[in-house]
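ok so I'm stuck.
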Amino acid sequence: MSSPATVSLEKLSIAELRDRVGGLVLALDQLRAEHAALQDRAEAQQARLAALQVENQALRDEVARLKGLPPRPSLRPSGMEKATGGSSGAGKGGKRSRRRRGAKRDREAVTAEVVVKAAPPPGSRFKGYQDILVRELILRAEVVRYRRERWTTPSGATVLAPLPAGLVGGFGPGLRRFLLVAHAQGQVTTERLSALLAGIGLEISKRQVVRLLTSRLDDLIAEDQAVLQAGLATARWVTVDDTAARHARQDAFTTQIGDDRFTAFRTGASKSRQAFLARLRAGHDGYVLNEAALAYMREHGLAWPVIERLAAHPTRVFADEAAWTAHLAALGIDRLAVTPDAVQIATEGALWGTIQAQGLLSDTVIVSDDAGQFRLGKHALCWIHAERLVHKLVPANDQQRRAIELTRDLIWWFYADLKAWQREPCPRRAAALRARFDRIFTRRSGYVVLDRLLARQHRRKAELLRVLERPEIPLHTNGSENDIRACVTKRKVSGGTMSEGGRMARDVLLGLMKTCRKLGVSFFRYLGDRLRVPGAEPIPPLADLVRQAAATA
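replied:
not stuck anymore, here's the structure
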């Protein structure tokens, strides 16, 4: 049976049907025109929004510059690592591992036992005990008087009984350990530390707190240097990063170097490649002209006559920067007006030769975010930063937006397959991944800015696909980002440092704290052993633990 609408249409004549269809076509054309106008208006508003975002970020950067702070990043992380199953808390099957409750872990760490008596009525039977674990922390101020015996020998000399180890300027090692842990690990400022101790009952000035935090750290400084040397000598890979810092009211930069076993921080006035190479010497001050140094100079385009002049001289080892500078002046290299700069390339080469002469970074892959100073030796690029360049593009229309979304999807899928390949390396699949990389990064989307970016990334193919040669290296620098966050928090909470002792203390304590965490060592117990707190648990040298972790990996 036909519907009323169908019947009514069937009764219409051809002329009436044509009129109705003409009216519908006219209404459809009007709707299309309105849709096009709305789309043009939306694109204009989107372009205006993008311009306002750029202007807003410029104003934020200007405010940060006037305040002496680094500009905030304008975009959130892309989330590629988590989206491809890279959550750090995931175990087998993608499920997060469940930690045991604290009370169960504490059953073997009971330090005291108290029996609580009951008052049962006569005739009751004893049924044992019901145990409950209570965690407690006892903080109290103590002032100990040490009465040192004095004796006079038959020869007239005075013998004075020695003080216990760990005492510094009338303050005990336990107090010093508390200050170091609270300041470095807890990020508590010196003002709040002095106020906290005063509330507990121990009067101490802020100046004295600063002294206890920055002085007499020679043993810790030496151990931090040994950790860096052991790490660079045994590392299969390291990730590196840097961040802004303030020292002596001047702009500075903190560089992070580490892997899954150790972390080291070094702060200086420059973040150039020469400064980075100097930090990679791990405390060595010399300059060495060996084959590795000359190869570096040739690779970086130093003029052949300059290389010959350096290679022909019998002196190849220089004790410090002054001796090296004098050598360049004696050979007349500092007066050469050539491109690239002869002094710069020669100095970088001599620093690289020193690193290789010490047996550091011999077969180590350096993974970075593509900052120029980190492109040394066997270099690999962080995929998170590479994808972030695509993520940061601001499209002006739907076509450009779709091109960016498609490219990001292709990169994410490729990244997930790289992670799967890492778990089960296969030469045939490696060849397929290389060919697939070429297809992704040589495709043409029609969006000129995106196509140029993909072409630039394709030129870095060897560094982005370094994992196909070395499956053990990470695909990102998330470890460095996590490590250096402690320096960023420190900068926000405490500002900068003024003295060289304060700068050294900040770098050393943060580095040792991160190293202890990676090695599964309590930083509190570590400081107890190193500061000679009575009854502290002995902790082996961290450098030995770093080497052991490399041997068992």
